Every structure is written in structure tokens, then in C-alpha cells.
Amino acid sequence: MRLKKHVIVVFSVVLIANAQGQDVHFSQYYASPIFMNPGTTGSFEGKMRAAINYRNQWLTVGKPYSTYSASYEIALLKKKQSTNYLGIGLNFLQDKAGLAAFKRTEINLALAYNVQLNEANNVALGVQGGYHLRSVDQSELTWDSQYNGSQYIEGSESYEDIKPTFGNVDVAAGLLWRYVLGKQGDINVGFGAAHLTRPKQQFAGTSLDKLPMKFTIHGEGRFTKRMSDLAYYPNFLVALQGPNREINAGIMFRYMMKESSKYTSFVRGNSVHFGANYRLGDAVIIILALELADWKIGLSYDITVSKFTTATSSVGGFEITLVYMKVD
User: Taking Cα atoms as reference points, which of 290, 298, 294, 299 lies closest to residue 272?
Assistant: First the structure.
């Protein structure tokens, strides 16, 4: 079973990645943490958070790979006297890869309960369930059976037994620990486990390997100094899924341009964020963000440093995030 030359590489890579179970990833993973760990649901300084992510990469390899995501979270039963509360979140993701338009669409509902152990320690446990759909655009594929020996006959029968779409239910769970350092900052460390149901992946009528579970460990710190407008946020992520791994670490700096008001909630503070991350063996990520009151917009660019630069002509990946968080 052979594909036309210009489709072989892209479609084969997509099928291999799917069979081995490599999930999509974001460079600005901390902008919408609900995607890597349901334990983070509702864990933020406020009552509501909404985020949109868009990622576009590998512009020089056939059609670009693009990923869209959106999430919405609320914190219920949250009171000033206690940090015990319930977080509820809904997230949506769609990823489209390559010439064959291999598409994955996911929608999930997440719940997390946050418990204050003492003044410094907070723990959250979260679960997530959803429906995941996989599809491929067969109109973009050509087969050897569609050639009559001298030319390609468009629209002719391929006689290939391919199921264009399939779906399954998926489940995830996660933990989050937060340690408060007073006004000087805090530390967050989480563990997430995805694909607990190990759903089967199939396009050609027979089941391929089950999707491997994915384990993610992540952390972020926030540190400030008294009478200083500068704060820094070291962060890391380690994700393991079957034979695949992702190790990402870096640091962000925040420069406060305008402090939030002590007497009114009208002004929440304006700041500039800048920094860089390194995804081991893959890319250097340059990040810039602007925070204006309740809104934060982030831009990042992946500078590919792996051997894949030959195929991409050194063109990396662009990502943009938009986050809205309502404090009161």
C-alpha cells in the first residue's frame, strides 16, 4: 500500500505518532495548565479563568501543523476565610496535522477539590473525562490503485479499507501541591496521569496499539523581593508517554509597570513578562507577554535546534495565548 510521494512522509509520520501515542504540546503550557493536569482546575487567584491558545509550526513541511485550544474554569465555594473550594473546568482542543489533514478533536470536563492543610500548604485532587475524536481527510490521499499505469485518475476507487473517523472516551487524573512563601511568592508542583482508559487507535479497520498512558510532572515558582518591581518565575515540565518524552525548563521575568490599587479593584496592575525555555533536544523557546489588568497576552517562538532543522529550513513554531482572569 503506497501513497503518492508528496504525501508519504507526512501521513506516515502522523500515523506513527498516533500509534506510539505522542500528544500535542504547547510551549506556553503554564498559560492553560488544565490541559496537562486536571488537578490545576480552579487553582488560581480569582473566581474565573478563560484561556485561548493557538500554535502553528513547521510552515515549510507541506501544510502547517496547527493546534487550537480553549478552556474555561470557575472556582466555587471559595471564601476569604478558607481556601477549601471546588474547581470546575471545560476544555476543548483541535489539532490538524499535515497534508492528510489528520485531525484530533477533544472536549473534556474537569473537577478538582482544593484543600488547605495549613497556612502554607494547599493540596488539590482532580479528575477529568471527555470524548476524543480522530479523523483523516481521504480526499487528500492518493493510492497506487488509482493509477492506470501512466496517469492518476482522480476520484477513482482506491479499494482501501480506511475508517475516516473514530472516537473514544478518555479519563485523566492529577494532583497539585502549593506551598506559600508569604508575600515573597509561592511554589506549585503537580502530577498528572492521562489516558487512564488506554483507548484503542484505529484507522484501517483493525485496532492498532492502545494509546499509552501519559505521565506529567510540572512545577512553577513565583519569587519577588520587597520594594522591587521585578519578579521571576522558574518553571519545568517532564512528560513521559510510551517511548516519547518531553523535558522543558526555563524562567520568566515579570516587570511591574503599574501596581494594583490598594483601595479599588478598578486597576489590577500592568506588567511585562519575558523569558526563555529549553525543550531538551528540540528547541529554544523565546517568550514575551503583556499583562493589562484582567488580561494577559503571550507570544512565543520555537527556535528548532534538533536535526529536524534540515526539513523545516530552520523555521520553528509560533504560539499565541490569551488569558482572562476575574479576581472578584
Answer: 290
Q: What is the pLDDT of residue 160?
A: 62
Contact assessment for residue 273 and residue 254, using Cβ atoms and an 8 Å cutoff: yes
Flag whether pLDDT at 311 surpasses 60. Answer: no
Containing structural domain, residue 65: 5-326
CA distances from 85 to 76, 79, 178 (A): 6, 8, 14
If we measure between CA atoms, which residue out of 187, 198, 192, 248 comes closest to residue 215?
A: 192
Query: Distance between CA 18 and CA 16 in Å, rounded?
Result: 5
What's 169's domain CATH number? 2.40.160.40
Tally the C-alpha atoms within 13 A of residue 186's C-alpha that lie toward its C-beta: 16
The 10s digit of each residue's pLDDT in 142-179 is: 666 667 667 666 666 665 666 778 889 999 999 999 99
* Amino acid sitting at position 69: S
Cβ atoms within 10 Å of 208's Cβ, excluding its own:
15
CA distances from 47 to 44, 141, 169 (A): 8, 47, 29
What's the rounded Cα separation, in Å, for the pair 39 and 27?
A: 20
Each residue of 257-282: pLDDT tens digit?
876 544 433 345 789 999 999 999 88
What is the spatial distance between Cα 91 and Cα 112, in angstroms, rounded to a whole number?
14
Check: CB of residue 277 under 8 Å from CB of residue 29: no
* Residues facing residue 127 across a β-bridge: 111, 173
For residue 95, how many C-alpha atoms fall within 13 Å in the half-sphere facing its CB? Answer: 16
- Name the grid cell of 304: 528548532
The total of structural domains in the chain comes to 1
Q: How far apart are CA 54 and CA 26, in angstroms?
A: 9
Using one digit for the tens of pLDDT, what is the confidence trace for 8-27? 333 333 443 343 445 777 89
DSSP assignment of 234-278, as one string?
EEEEEEEETTEEEEEEEEEEEEEEEPPPSS-SS---EEEEEEEEE
Question: Which cell is 82 given?
Answer: 478558607
